[in-house]
Write a structure and sequence with these properties.
The structure holds two protein chains of two kinds. Chain A is α+β, with helices and mostly antiparallel strands. Chain A contains eleven helices and ten strands. Chain A folds into three domains: 81 residues, Butyryl-Coa Dehydrogenase, subunit A, domain 1 (Orthogonal Bundle); 99 residues, Butyryl-CoA Dehydrogenase, subunit A, domain 2 (Beta Barrel), CATH 2.40.110; 152 residues, Butyryl-CoA Dehydrogenase, subunit A, domain 3 (Up-down Bundle), CATH 1.20.140.10. Helices cover 52% and strands 14% of the residues of chain A. Classes of the chains: A alpha+beta, B alpha+beta.
Chain lengths: 376, 427
């Protein structure tokens, strides 16, 4: 049994943690939170790009480091711990993974080196309206090489240079009519306008497309299938970010409970709080274990990936939501002030549990994939 | 990252498999149902559920003893014990591998778990050489069964609060009082007992540890009927039970220290908690009709089942992480302490929810219930016990908070006063 990261991967984790402690402190997170003109920490982005993090899991022939998905999981956990305000997830977990899995060699050569170096940023545009994206609410159309429609919300859309857009080629939209298209944001028909989000360190925008030129990514009509696969891959990576953030929420709750005195003792000595923190610990450990299993499935291209990814996603989303909520509760009154950092985690946890589909969707994915496995 | 044995572990697993294949009957994979009350790791009674009555219980015990003998002859009866006492001299990971493999076979080792897992190691650490020579070999072979006489009516979670009197009379001790929740006291040959030898000392200082022959005059075991209807535990009464001072283990007043050796081994001794989990309700949901068709197709049911799935598999993968640590020769992390806490509540939630799904027929709980064979009715009762036995949910949360997270211990009034001056609510 060797269900753990290797010593080299752990070393990478230690280095990443030290680097982020130094370069991505709460002050720099707050500068993005409070400055509406800044979508991400540009300095941090260029430094992590120089370190090669953006190219971690991109093959060497396309300008990356050619390491594996496990290394990317390790980095994801650290980015989550540090609340790093960068478009890393949109560009690396999603855009690069789409290209790696479905790009032609030509497309890979064109886009991946720019993404691996951090010079360009990519993202993905799917949702158009309230509720779960599905065929009847995707109205964006592809006709004769041009895209028309509107997407909302698009994570990191303002920061992005390239956007993968999901659009129907058929006015009678169904599960076989969706295709994916790569758009260059500099096209004059592209319009973005900023949206406020529940976590401004992870921004989003509205994307309007008017006769925008595009190139197709992957097979025509296989959009939903590709999205499922890439969201599964991204779910594992996000689960590490979530576990990282949840762990810091618990650590900070604990620290505060040992510093704060009430009724003549440390509040961390009250069983009501001890038991709450024990429950946080339990949920985080279960989430960490589910995330590890996801990492194993991701790194081995296992058939288990849809189940492992959904398990990791649900477990880590619930653990982080719980830990960040209870962190505020343990802090009491100061917990809901702007000054204390609790809300940074409260914001981030909820945003991360929505960005590639809600917990209820992923629970549904989990059970339906278990049903499929049973039939096979 | 992989799930493979090391070459050495694979070699050991092969040896275990060939022993089991040659000597025991494999469980059918279809019959993988939860173990319910009997045969669970918490109780050591271990009689198959279908066996009822005294004769059948005797037969089950005899079968278990025969199996234990075979294990002992093959060297597998006590993987962690040193070879000089008849053990395998193995590592914790080998212990885990053996347990994994044996789990697939119809055998009962529960009768011997407390002795081999907890009491034997205590005797090795604190006992006299002649006692080790006399008792340990027969503990391994199952010829003599041991029970643990610790809990009392007024000392449950607060174990050090025991009141069993041990009074010295020349070269003898006289024991008076009552023990409770003693698994297997009615068939055990010997027991290890901790008693209060000095009520004027501080709570943890006035205890002394002994072993007793369960046939000593004055000892009487009475089974406790549980809400499930079965009786896996006993009350054990001691009336002027006289034992020689040579049966003392450790020094007078060191009883708590010796007890800690026993309790530290409990975590390793207690194996997999019994099932009734996601898999059972997932299967059942394909048979039960709710308002809009099969339960498995109902959105609320699916959402609930997903929660149980992530808990269930989260625990399984946590165990893989612990095994990885063991495999590397490291001490497994404290993450093992979450297992029973999660499992017991999950089982109660699963069984209660499944009964809801069954609607009116969920009320029925008769022998050989044709509807899902009482699976969830039994789980409903057993899970309530499981949340308490072997450390209540609350004690486990305290353990996690204090030992894992390093939060302060509760403020206690019982550490500074002599035991007989502590408030007890009784006198």
């Amino acid at each position: 049994m060797n269900f753990d990261f290797s010593d080299d991967q752990k070393l990478l984790r230690d280095q990443a943690r030290k680097f982020l402690q130094d370069k991505c402190d709460r002050k720099s997170v707050r500068s993005i939170l409070e400055d509406h003109k800044q979508n991400y920490d540009v300095d941090l982005w260029s430094q992590i790009s120089e370190l090669g993090w953006t190219g971690t899991a991109i093959p060497e022939e396309y300008g990356g480091l050619g390491l594996g998905m496990l290394e990317l999981c390790v980095i994801a956990e650290e980015l989550g711990r540090a609340l790093a305000p960068t478009p890393f997830s949109s560009s690396i977990y999603i855009f690069a993974e789409f290209l790696k899995s479905y790009g032609t060699d030509e497309q890979k050569k064109k886009y991946l080196p720019l993404i691996a170096s951090g010079e360009k940023i990519g993202t993905f545009a799917l949702s158009e309206t309230n509720g779960k994206p599905k065929p009847n609410n995707i109205k964006t159309q592809h006709n004769s090489g041009k895209l028309n429609g509107s997407k909302n919300p698009v994570s990191d859309g303002e920061s992005a240079d390239y956007i993968i857009v999901a659009a129907n080629s058929d006015s009678n939209s169904n599960y076989n009519s969706l295709s994916l298209f790569i758009v260059d944001k500099s096209d004059p028909g592209v319009n973005v306008s900023n949206l406020d989000t529940i976590d401004p360190t992870r921004p989003a925008c509205t994307l309007d497309l008017e006769n925008v030129a595009c190139e197709r990514l992957g097979d025509e009509g296989s959009g939903w299938e590709m999205i499922d696969n890439i969201f599964n891959r991204a779910a594992v990576l996000f689960s590490f970010e979530q576990v990282g953030g949840a762990q810091v929420s618990l650590d900070e709750a604990k620290k505060y409970s040992l510093e704060r005195f009430a009724f003549g003792k440390q509040i961390g000595a009250f069983q009501a709080l001890k038991h709450k923190m024990a429950d946080m610990y339990v949920k985080i450990e279960l989430a960490r274990s589910n995330a590890y299993y996801g990492a194993w499935a991701l790194s081995t291209d296992s058939n288990e990936l849809p189940i492992a990814a959904a398990g990791a996603r649900v477990s880590a989303s619930e653990a982080y939501n719980f830990a960040s909520q209870e962190n505020i509760q343990i802090h009491g009154g100061v917990g809901f002030t702007w000054e204390y950092d609790c809300h940074l985690f409260y914001r981030r946890s909820k945003l991360l549990s929505l960005n590639i589909g809600s917990i209820r969707q992923w629970k549904e994915n989990l059970i339906s994939n278990l049903e499929k496995r049973n039939i096979v | 990252m992989d799930f493979n044995d090391t070459p050495q572990e694979a070699e050991f697993r092969k040896k275990v498999r060939s022993f089991l294949e040659a000597n025991a009957e494999k469980r059918s994979t279809l019959a993988a149902k939860p173990k319910g009350d009997s045969g669970s790791s918490i109780s050591s009674a271990g009689a198959p559920e279908t066996v009822k009555g005294e004769d059948a219980a005797k037969l089950a015990l005899q079968n278990a003893k025969e199996w234990q003998r075979k294990k002992a002859d093959a060297g597998f009866a006590a993987i962690l014990w040193p070879k000089e006492f008849g053990g395998y001299g193995g590592s914790p990971i080998e212990q885990v591998i053996y347990a994994q493999e044996e789990h697939d076979y119809f055998v009962h080792s529960g009768y011997f778990e407390i002795g081999i897992g907890m009491l034997g190691p205590t005797m090795m650490a604190w006992g006299k050489d002649e006692d080790k020579k006399r008792f340990l070999p027969k503990m391994i072979t199952g010829e003599e069964i041991w029970c643990q006489l610790f809990s009392e009516p007024s000392a449950g979670s607060d174990l050090a609060g025991i009141r069993m009197k041990a009074e010295k009379d020349g070269d003898e001790w006289v024991l008076n009082g009552q023990k409770v929740w003693t698994s297997g006291a009615h068939f055990a040959d010997y027991g290890m007992i901790v008693a209060r030898s000095d009520p004027t000392a501080l709570k943890h200082k006035g205890l002394t540890y002994f072993y007793v022959d369960m046939k000593t005059p004055g000892i009487e075991a009475k089974p406790i009927k549980q809400i499930s209807g079965s009786a896996n535990f006993n009350e054990v009464f001691f009336n002027d039970v006289r034992i020689p001072d040579s049966q003392r283990i450790g020094a007078e007043g060191d009883g708590w220290k010796v007890s800690l050796t026993t309790l530290m081994n409990e975590r390793l001794a207690v194996g997999d908690p019994p099932g009734l989990d996601f898999d059972q309700i997932f299967e059942a949901s394909k048979e039960i009709e709710v308002e809009d068709g099969l339960a498995v197709k109902n959105s609320e049911v699916r959402q609930k089942m997903a929660d149980w799935y992530i808990q269930s598999r989260g625990l399984q993968y946590t165990k893989y992480r612990s095994m990885t640590a063991l495999s590397k020769g490291q001490t497994p992390g404290p993450e093992l302490s979450i297992s029973k806490l999660v499992t017991a509540s999950k089982m109660q939630d699963v069984s209660s929810y499944a009964l809801d799904l069954m609607d009116m027929s969920g009320m029925v709980h008769q022998d050989k219930n044709p509807i899902l064979k009482n699976l969830f009715q039994n789980g409903y009762f057993f899970s309530a016990a499981m949340r308490i036995a072997g450390g209540t949910d609350e004690v486990l949360r305290n353990i996690i908070a204090e030992r894992v997270l390093g939060l302060p211990q509760d403020e206690r009034s019982d550490k500074k006063l002599p035991f007989n001056e502590l408030p007890s609510g009784k006198n």
